[in-house]
Amino acid sequence: MDRQGAIALIQGLKADEVQRRLRAAAEYAMALPAARHATASVGFCWGGSTSFAFATSWPDLKGAAVYYGTPPADDAMARIHAPVAGFYGGDDARVTTTVEPAHQAMQRLGKRYDPHVFEGAGHGFLRDQAGRNGANLRAARDAWPATVAFLRDVLH
Fold first, then answer.
1. Residue 124 has what DSSP assignment?
2. What is the CATH number that goes with domain 3-154?
């Protein structure tokens, strides 16, 4: 399947079904003998938006890491119980313009949202580390350790 075919499939997904399946996968994984009984989500692009949305639909989620994903609507943010960390390219205007309004909404709601915007980096900087004259690599070098630290914090 090519990129356009994948995009078409993703656009055909129903949000409530995606959330139901994410929760089922998390519950299955946490029930495994070697598993901890806590989970967080990490998503990239559409998956980043989905990770943010997952925090609105499952109160047992311990944290959501969002890479280059847009936030849910303000009214949905009221249902977030888990901390959210966001990682964004400064040159990704379509997504990055949503960061400050989301930050303000989360603050008003008393929710933890730790956005990180990396100057000069573009959309998909973790995947395209050679891009943007080193800005994507610098962003990746900062974002991934921050993600691991966030997950360690919320899953303690």
1. T
2. 3.40.50.1820
